[in-house]
Design brief:
Muramoyl-pentapeptide Carboxypeptidase, domain 2, 13% strand, 268 residues, three-stranded antiparallel beta sheet, binds zinc ion, 8 strands, alpha+beta
């Protein structure tokens, strides 16, 4: 009898501890599932290490401890909704193809043009005054052009622009494209929309407008639902140099803007 009681006690102890282990394993699996970092978040973390330090339960964690929601759970947005009410995950939805385009962009394929504005405001500033605090003047292509332009120091964008400018400066055959820079910093909305242009953040350069094509000039409209015929005159070598330094090209959009280059390392 005594032996039976001890066995029963040991058996209950064993069952209890086994259950605890199973429960603990399940809890750990649950935690891994909710905290598994989506590949698009990893890209953001790698691209902006000065700002994003982690991820937890659908939120990216900023260095200052604040959180920003990643996926808003709305997965069947129209193209207009993607542009006008995107989430941070929508910003990563369309994949940017590095190098030479094999075909012109398909209808409404605008990789990089879907932007979750609070994400950029958080890094670069949410007002003209805030952005201006981080701007420096640099000399664009000192040998071939020598134009003074304003760019942000955040994320080392000024250094990257100096590097790519030095590289372009070794190509005298490209002078007509890189002379008379169309614009860098300009706190403004995108023409025909209520959305803030990335020119507002000092991360973006328009090269010579005279050598460029823009969808609104071609369709003579601002309607983003319009059917547009693709045009480009910018040589591939310029695009390759910008992409090498973390800048995407607006010539890879259905709504093409071939003068436009913006710092978006998360897409490259
Ligand atoms: Zn532009």
């Amino acid at each position: 009898m005594h032996y039976f009681r001890i066995s029963l006690f040991l058996c209950m102890l064993w069952a209890g501890s086994s259950l605890q282990i199973v429960c603990a394993q399940n809890a750990a699996k649950q935690a891994i599932r909710s905290d598994a970092i989506p590949s698009d978040v990893k890209k953001l973390m790698q691209a902006y290490p000065d700002f994003i330090t982690g991820y937890h339960s659908n939120f990216i964690i900023w260095k200052d401890g604040s959180k920003m929601i990643f996926d808003d759970g709305k997965h069947h947005k129209s193209y207009s909704e993607l542009l006008n009410t995107p989430s941070l995950s929508d910003q990563m939805l369309q994949k940017y193809e590095k190098g030479k385009l094999s075909v012109s962009p398909g209808k409404n394929l605008d990789p990089g043009r879907i932007r979750y504005e609070p994400f950029f405001c958080k890094m670069y500033g949410s007002s003209q005054n805030e952005v201006r605090k981080h701007l420096v003047e640099i000399t664009w292509c000192p040998k071939l052009v020598g134009q003074k332009i304003l760019v942000t120091t955040i994320n080392g964008v000024d250094k990257k622009i100096k590097e790519l400018s030095a590289e372009l400066d070794t190509h005298p055959e490209l002078k007509e494209y890189i002379t008379n820079i169309g614009g860098t910093f300009n706190w403004r909305k995108i023409s025909g929309t209520g959305r803030q242009s990335t020119h507002s953040f000092g991360t973006t350069i328009d090269i010579n407008t005279k050598c460029s094509n823009y969808w609104q000039w071609e369709c003579k409209c601002t309607n983003e639902e319009a059917n547009i015929v693709y045009k480009n005159r910018i040589p591939q070598v310029i695009i390759d140099i910008f992409e090498k330094h973390g800048f995407i090209w607006g010539g890879k959009w259905y709504h093409f803007d071939t003068m436009h280059f913006e710092y978006r390392p998360e897409l490259l």
